[in-house]
Amino acid sequence: MRHNRSAAALAAAAFLLASGACLTLAAPAHAGTPGGTYANDRNSDFDGDGREDVVTAAPTATVAGARGAGHVSVRYGSDRGPGAERAVRISQATAEVPGAPEADDGFGTALATGDLNSDGYDELIVGVPGEDLAGHRSAGGVTVLWGGKKGLSTSGSWLRARHPAENAHFGAALAAARFSAAHPGDLLAVADRHGLELAEWAPVPPPVDGGGPGGPPGGIAPLDTTPHDTTPDGTTAHDTTPDGTGAARSHTPARPLARTALPRPAGARATVVRTLTTGDYNSDGLADLIASGTSTGADGGAGWSAYFPGGARGPAYARDLVGGPVAASGDIDGDGYDDLVTGEPAASDAASDSGGAAPAGGLVGVRYGGPSGPAAEPQWWTQDSPGVAGTPEHGDGFGSDLSVADADGDGYAEVAIGAAGEDVGRVADAGAVWVLKGSPTGLTGRGSTHWNQGSPQVPGAVERGDSWGAQVRFTGPDAQGRYALLAAAHREDDGTGSVWLLPAGRDGVGAAGSSTFGAGRPHGGAGHFGAVIDE
Question: Measuring CA to CA, how many Å separate 458 from each of 54, 397, 517?
């Protein structure tokens, strides 16, 4: 449906597997149900009420005087839309959140959600790749905020690399899904410059008290006897007791059960990973992992992705694919196989590897799923494609971000495409968004729609450098099974940032009734709110 992404993520490509015995495969999950498998059951329901919650980050915001410390905004779902009834802001200045706000921490540079402990409530996973640890600058880390009946608990868990390193940026890209048949819930994939780690938490019963803001997640037992990590501020982290009373608890209520590695084989393409997305591309009942980035080889800068199908003991490397560094997943043709969509906004030479020429304005590739996973050959889309409005121009950034979901409820997923550098008239880099429709034969330009801040009924005005559409994200479903669209302009108002909500209707996403929201006050200066939106 949507993808886990990061802003300025820098991670290399080695991947870890969690251990465990084979279990029976689970049916597709839905919000509040452990174990996300298909793209359209990706979970973002922290309080288990069946309404999707939305998380938006301002990763460069000033917090407690620290520039670039970053914060996230959680907008809980309601009948009137995300955040209409409840919204909270969380940072490292929030009580019981691990660490303290420091310059350039980048809290919220990457976001993911999933039910890590299989209790029926989703967790919020926040990447902090700029965190300094043990004398290592920008070693990075990850905060896990546990879901419960009352919403997210700020008494979070801290996860860092087993061997923190200078400029490793651990937490630069994140994804959570049910990759392994040995675990009923979601496993967490975390990228850094040196690799990608898959962490497993033990399944636990639902909390007796339902958890909730400021309280312990409940029921999370100590998981191993290895020395406890330290929190970002250097204090020793303790686990909760098995009954969740927190008798010895400080910052870390639970530690991963397993963290093991499997490097990619020799000869696999070396890439800097910038995006992680998941879906069941081979329809075997387990989530598969796609790591997308840019090549560091002779074709440096070209977009490439690696396919890691899920298995009994976790994902394993299968093959490399042309396309990236942006990626998203969903079932466009309604055949039961998730499809992979990649974006190359800089449009280097990805298309030439398939015998075509890459346009200057950006490139989007669609690989349809099947028994062997994503197709070997992509279907390429640009602003020159039939039915797609506009003309490709250098710097448009077509494919700056992507999201995939069934916006009109017809059983075929649409693809939202952002172009952060699109010029509107003579206004440079104002930004624009397209939605292309799914169909039984795949993605089509017929009936596609296109907006910018100058479109009728879209709030705001076209301004130079706003980068409207740098992030796009379908949100839903509503009672009719349709998805609305979020479009962010993180450079709006001199870098303060803002997010637009375009509602879903019978014909899909439309501008009528559109609204906008920001980080609220104090907004933390040029925090670039909307630079990252959760999956």
Answer: 21, 21, 13
Residue 125, pLDDT above cutoff 50: yes
> Which has more confidence, 270 or 419?
419
For the chain, the residue count is: 535
Nearest to 455 by CA among 424, 421, 487: 424
Rounded to whole angstroms, how far apart are CA atoms 274 and 291? 8
Query: What residues have CB less than 8 Å from 224, skipping those under 6 apart?
Result: 255, 256, 257
Backbone angles phi, psi at 352, to 5 degrees: -65, -25
Give the confidence band of 83 by pLDDT, cuts at 50, 70, 90: confident
Per-residue pLDDT of 383-394, as tens digits, reads 999 999 999 999
Structure tokens at 485: 């669209």
The answer to whether the CB of 52 falls within 8 A of the CB of 79 is no
Structure confidence at residue 234 (pLDDT): 54
**Contact between 198 and 311 (Cβ < 8 Å):** no
Question: Among residues 319, 118, 116, which one has the least CA distance to residue 198?
Answer: 116
CA angle 486, 276, 165 (to 5 degrees): 120
Residue pair 307/330 in contact by the 8 Å Cβ criterion? no
Dist. CA 68–CA 66, nearest whole Å = 6
Instruction: For 438-488, write each residue's pLDDT tens digit.
Output: 999 999 999 999 999 999 999 999 999 999 999 999 999 888 889 999 999
pLDDT value for 350: 42
For 18-51, give one letter per residue: b (16+ CB within 10 A) or e. bebeeeeebeebebbbbbbbbbbbbbbbbbbbeb
Q: Give the other-Cβ count within 10 Å of 200's Cβ.
A: 26
Distance CA 192, CA 136 (A): 14
At a CB cut-off of 8 Å and minimum separation 6, what does 514 contact? 457, 458, 459, 500, 501, 502, 503
Residue with tokens 């479903």: 477
Strand ranges in 240-309 using DSSP code E only, listed in sequence order: 258-260, 271-279, 288-295, 303-308
- Side chain identity at residue 266, one-letter code: A
Q: What is d(CA 291, CA 264) in angstroms, rounded to the nearest whole number?
A: 12
Distance between CA atoms of 341 and 344, rounded to whole angstroms?
Answer: 10
Phi, psi of 13 (to 5 degrees): -125, 85
β-pairing verdict for 303-308 and 71-75: unpaired
The answer on pLDDT for 365 being more than 60 is yes
Partners of 133 in beta bridges: 136
